């Protein structure tokens, strides 16, 4: 599969690159994608939720009313869950939501996500992007030149570019990452992948091993 290489102004450079069939041409494994996205989201959870149960409630333990003769149910303490302000039954406790996922499954998930985008023609390759200073309007213009202003974009660079990161971080639909940090969630969450030519070479070398 060949794709056109554009410059940062959205112009055709006259070059084409070939997307590796071993990565972008495979049959996407949807279950691997699901597992990797599930793990990513689970790892984002702090797990610090906590509700006070009956033993932790600060109410008095005095008996509220006599045991018999009132015509109502027995009541021994305001800590009972049946009263407003009482303890919570089986309330949430702090826990770790993360779980293990094999490296090969995670690798397959990323390759599958790349294949999904390639087969939907949602990958654009650019030769390079260089911003002289961190300026949001310059990044907005970059997206406009590529006709992706109205789409969620993920720009993949070979290394961290501070000016590009700072220029894009205030844009809700734009995200910038590097080849070493790219993950399945970000790939699937984006409508359009913008991959630098150098980053594409690194990705193909990484997954073809």
From TrEMBL:
GO biological process, any: translation
GO molecular function, a single term: structural constituent of ribosome
InterPro entries the UniProt entry points to: Ribosomal_uL4, Ribosomal_uL4-like, Ribosomal_uL4_dom_sf
Domain of life, per lineage: Bacteria
Tagged with keyword NADP: no
Gene Ontology CC annotations of this record: ribonucleoprotein complex; ribosome
Region (Disordered): 45-78
Keywords of this entry: Ribonucleoprotein, Ribosomal protein, RNA-binding, rRNA-binding
Family to which the UniProt record says this protein belongs: Belongs to the universal ribosomal protein uL4 family.
Description of how the protein assembles with itself and partners: Part of the 50S ribosomal subunit.
NCBIfam families, per database record: rplD_bact (TIGR03953)
Function recorded in the entry: Forms part of the polypeptide exit tunnel.
Protein name (database record): Large ribosomal subunit protein uL4
UniProt organism field: Spirosoma terrae
